[in-house]
Each structure stands twice: as C-alpha cells, then as structure tokens.
Amino acid sequence: MRRLTPLAILAAAAALVLSINGTSRASTSPITHVVVIFQENHSFDNVLGILCETRPVPCNGSSAAKVRNGTIITLGRTGDNSDPPLEHDLAGQTRAIDGGKMDSFGTLINCRGYNSKTLVGTYNGCFTQFTPSKIPALSTLANSFTVSDMTFEDGPLPSWGSHLELAASTLDGFRGSNPTSSKRLLWGCPDGKLTKWRASGSSVWLTVPDCVPAQAGSGAAAAEPPAVQNSPVPYVPTIMDRLDSAGDSWRIYAPDPGEPGYGWAICPSFAECEYSPQRADQVDPGQVLTDAGKGDLPNFSVVIPSDGNSQHNGFSMAVGDRYIAKVVSAIENGPDWTSTAIFITYDDCGCFYDHVTPPPGMGVRVPMVIVSPYAKAGGTDSNVASFNSILAFTEQNFSLPPLSSADANAYDYSGAFDYSQTPLPPVPLPEARVPASARHDFDPVPGDPT
Question: For the whole model, what pTM was predicted?
C-alpha cells in the first residue's frame, strides 16, 4: 500500500508547482487513498438545489421545475422520508429527460407532483427537494469542501447499470436496467437473475444472466429459462483488476449476502471478482470505520450502504446523513485523512427532478461532494463529469491504464483540487435529527443508536 508521511505529503504538495511538461499526476499527488461513498437514488436539485441558492460560492441548483405545459412550478420541501419508489428505469428516465427539455418528470409512476389544471397543492413525488437542515452533515461538507454541479449519470441508468459503470467503465453490452426474475433472488453471478444484452454491432437483444463472465468465460449461470445458458457476454476488466495488477490495494465495503443492500455490492456482478481471491476484498460496510480509525484504508474503496443507510426512496434521509457523517468523520479523525480524497455521490436520480439538460448520452445530474484536505474550500467544479470521472481520477492518480475510451476521455475532477494549498483541516459534522417514525430504518454501524 502506498503511504506518505506528513512531511512527504507537504513536500509533494509543494512540488506541484509545475508547468505542463509531461510530468505524471501520480508523481505529484499527495492522494494515496480514494474513497467513493455511493448512496442511492437522488438528483442534484433534490439534494443540493436549495443549498446552492444560498451557498457563499454559488453552484447551479434550482428550486423551480418545468412541467409539460411549459409552466414553472416551485419544488416542494419534503419531509425526512422520500415518497414511494419513483419510476426510474432506462425508459422512465429517458421519458423524463424528454430530449433535453426536462419537462416530463410528471409522467413517471408515483410522481404526484401537482394538479395538472390548477398547478397548486402539496408537492410530492419527484417534484421535491430537501432543505439543508434535513441533511446537515452533507450540507456542511458541501459548504466546506467542493461541490461538482455538473456530474451526470453515465447514461439514464438505474442502480445496477450505474454500479457496473463505476467498476468497469462500460455496460459491456447490457441494457443497464435492473435485472428481473420470477424468484426472490439478488443481482449478480451467484443468483442468476436475467437481463437484456446484445453483442456489439447487433440489433438483437438476448436474455442472459446478469453476470460479466471471468476471463475464462465462466461464472454466468442462468437460474431459469428463457435465458441463454452459455453466456455470450465477454469479460471486461474492472478497476479492481487494474489496482491488483499495479500492486495497489482496494476494498468494497458492502452488505453481506442475504443482507438488505447486497444487490448493490458490485463484486457479485463480476465473475472475476465473485469467484476469485478478489472476493475477500469485499467486506462488511462497518469495517470502513475500523479501517479509517486504524489508518488501514486501502488505496481505493467503494462504500456501499445497507438499505437503511442508503437514503433510497422510502428510507430516511436523516439516517443516511448520519451514516455519511460517521464514515467521513472516521476518515477525518484517522491517520489517513491527510492523504485521502472522498467522493460522495448517488448512483442515479431516483428519479427526482433536475433542471439541467444532460450532455448527449448521459443521464440525469446527481449530487457530488468532494472532500479532501486538498479540495478547494467552498469550491464549485462546473466541468462536465460522470462516474467515469471517478475512474479517471483514480487511474491518473495511481498511474493505471484506462478501462475503456469512456474513462480515458473523461474529465478527472482536476479542477476540484489544489495540491499546493495549505491542507484543509477536518470539519466537525452535525448529526441529523432522526424522527421517531424513521428510527426503524437504522442499520447500525459501530456507534449508531438502535
């Protein structure tokens, strides 16, 4: 594992005063730990829209929404829990975006946002947003460090596709929608759910297991017909493979099999991870607090929450905000803080309203808060980014080859950092007040109330 002493870190920061002379970023960066906190199902305006309107350094948030008749309405202030799950599959997100008009969120299932005739009433469903007081820890981090206000989904994808993209920079021919099954199974190679896939250059969609086979072509087994039994899906490398090849460490902090949230765990969707020694590097999410406290964070990690901590539709935002606070505080107060970059984001829109038109091929804009001693204090990074940008940052920081043309050409969040600045200190994080009605949502990590 790459580690730097505080003296070496300061020396590296001072050495950053460079001209564009071909020197690699990895040779100058003080960052030796990259942590991705991958929460669930919220758009940028839903989470940070109000904060951006009052933040000392503005960011592009809005409390207004456009509906299909062209009328502008005000987004409602929601309570602690989001409404029941909104339609947010590929078809639903594409319909909501409406070719860039951003005016058809009201057509989504469970988006009961307004009266189509009077445009008055209690707004709920997808036309809602949270005040900073509901999510005080994330709001404090957004004001203290850097907000990216132009991070988009890599496509109009729900959770499974976004987790594939975060690991492999590609859907590998999968449509990207969440896998389905007539049985109560989870996602990934061990469970054999089904999804749609087509070969490069083909127009024919096949029903195949939701699994990227290993290099040997093994690992994808269908649990039920009518799936193709011998999966035609090709192996693709992941960021885990790249790190292993370079001798760098990684962990996925995720729920165990059978626990709520295991479907988001990433490793099970890749046979090369699930059926190899890599599987040992997927560990319980609570271990991130222990590792941070001991100074044992890996070079790269993804923190996947359980259902109760995920802020997914139907779960408490306050509980999830306290979870974010505990993870970030453990890192801030641990030995690895001076060499860490934390990316806090959400895997898809959920699909709550956002007013910014995505670039061609991308999905709805999502929250992104970048926390590090070298993040620009109160800064805003308005360069177009996506989950591929997290990969680009990681690859350039550790001198890893890209996984695909997507991450090779992605913006790398370089505008969010200043390695020559005096490192920022940890920021104390307030704990959100959890309503009694939501306390059952807690999935405790060490130190949580029950």
Answer: 0.90
CA distance 116 to 417: 45
- Using DSSP bridges, classify how beta strands 250-253 and 282-283 pair: parallel, antiparallel or unpaired: parallel
Same domain, 265 and 145: yes
* Residues of the domain holding 120: 29-169+236-450
Average the pLDDT over each of 18-27, 289-298, 319-328 and give the range with the smallest value: 18-27
Residues 363 and 296 in one domain: yes
Contact between 91 and 126 (Cβ < 8 Å): no
Nearest residue to 443 (alpha-carbon basis) of 283, 286, 281, 264: 286
Any domain includes 267: yes
Is the domain of 215 the same as that of 253?
no
Residue type, 295: G
CATH of residue 305's domain is: 3.40.720.10
Residue ending a domain, among 191, 215, 234, is: 234
Crossing angle of helices 317-332 and 287-294, in 10° steps, is 20
Specify the pairing of strand 300-303 against strand 340-346. unpaired
CA 11 vs. chain centroid, Å, equals 32
Using the predicted structure, report yes or no on whether residue 351 has a pLDDT greater than 60.
Answer: yes
Counting residues of the chain whose pLDDT is more than 90, the rounded percentage is 61
